[in-house]
Amino acid sequence: MDEKTQNTELNTPSFGEAAAYWIKLGFLSFGGPAGQIAMMQTECVDKRRWIDQGAFLRGLNYSMLLPGPEAQQLAAYLGWRLHGVPGALFAGTAFIVPGVVIMIALAWVAAAYGDQGPVAAVFEGIKPVVIAIVIAAVYRIGKKACNGIVPISLAAAAFGALFFLSIPFPFVVIGAGIIGVILAKVAPGALSGGHGHAAPPAETAEAPKRSGVARFLIITAVFLVSLIGPSILAVAIMGVEPFQNVVKLFTTAAFVTFGGAYAVLPFVADAAVNTYGWLSGEQMIDGLALAETTPGPLILVTTYVGFFAGWNTLGGINGVYAALLTTYVTFLPSFYLIIAGAPYIESIQKFAWARDALSAITAAVVGVILNLAIFLGQAALLSDMNHPDWLGIIAAVIALGLLLSNKVGIPMMVGLGAVFGLARAFLL
Questions:
Q1: How far apart are CA 27 and CA 121, in angstroms?
Q2: What sign has the CA pseudo-torsion 153, 129, 121, 119?
Q3: Which of 81-85, 125-129, 184-188, 200-204 has the lowest mean pLDDT?
Q4: How far, in Å, CA of 387 to CA of 256, rounded?
Q5: Are 172 and 163 in contact (CB under 8 A)?
Q6: Exposure string (b/e) for 223-259, b if CB count within 10 Å is 16 or more?
Q7: Nearest CA-CA partner of 425 in 216, 117, 190, 144
Q8: Residue 60's closest CA among 80, 41, 88?
Q9: CA dihedral 321, 322, 323, 325 (to 10 degrees)
């Protein structure tokens, strides 16, 4: 059955019906991008027949080519397919709002009570689990992305550039993408094992017409006004510090988040901990653990970091203001990229250089995440090299074994870490 025939059998929902589903998805979107994408596949394609499989996969492939959280971008794309720009804005926003509210509440608890009694014990217990989660991510992504000498070399080079040379993360991502483009021209197939995206469809959309160019320019202008205007207003009303640096850091992060949240976390963590001093390495680990166990994309850890920027710089309610500003500048580019590019998805995906650039970046991300694991491990378990936290190291090894065996999911593993922390505090 061809796509045209399939389209005649689709059930187009009302805006209200779709909105109810997007709100529901926002509260149930646990489990990381794989689980979130699977939920949308099941509901929007298989059960409700709102969109056909081909369009869903093309939207997914496009989302994976973009910087930013692919599951949230896919939700925005599906919303666009169903109800245009209003649908994209509603679907993409509903996907993150529950997680944002929960993350800000948890960040307040962590900031106010994170060094006290049971709360401190819980956070101490989940630190080894977070290290295990990141190492497991290195293994799983590496297993898929590094299927040859070229991808392995890119991963090793990315790790060396960050760990030994301290090259800024955006340059590592850009460099990997450029290498991918070059390889697409001089050595086609060198990165064929670099990612698992479906091949682009044989049929492609026509090149954008002049009206399409005008549409793109208008959307770009609206995006720039939406980004610059509120950012300037926030700095003018609430002060330069930390709000100016919040806008600078998280807008940059939004445009270099290729390969998922794990890839950009070293960049965010280094800036937030070492450059601006908004929070400690241990608190950064706490934020990652909370993001792993709350609904929404993992990149919501930036909301947590933004909260601490406001809390530790100015105190109190300023943490909430900084967290909201962080969330706004982090996700606004995702809406822009989806709304601006959605009409041209088929055209964009036919280019081999774009797919190979993503493959190269994905391979490099393995080295980036390994650097993150070392950064977090040093902060959580090896802060005192003369007295390593051997009990924590043992807990991390056990947690890694359970995660790699697929016997325990991430949310449950974090819960077990919390129990471990409480028991450790009580017994020791």
A1: 28
A2: positive
A3: 200-204
A4: 37
A5: no
A6: beeebeeebeebbeebeeebbebbbebbbbbbebbbb
A7: 117
A8: 41
A9: 90
Residue 265: Cβ within 10 Å count = 30
Q: What is the DSSP letter of 164?
A: T
Which 3-state string (H, E, C) describes 165-199? Answer: CCCCHHHHHHHHHHHHHHHHHHCCCCCCCCCCCCC
* Closest to 421 in 3D by CA, of 205, 220, 124: 124
Count of residues making up the chain: 428
Helices (H) and strands (E) in the chain, counts: 18, 0
pLDDT tens per residue, range 18-56: 999 999 999 988 767 767 888 898 889 988 999 988 888
Rg for the chain (alpha carbons), in Å?
22
**pTM surpassing 0.85?**
no
- The ranges assigned to domains in the chain are 3-93, 94-195+203-427
- In three-state secondary structure terms, 388 is coil
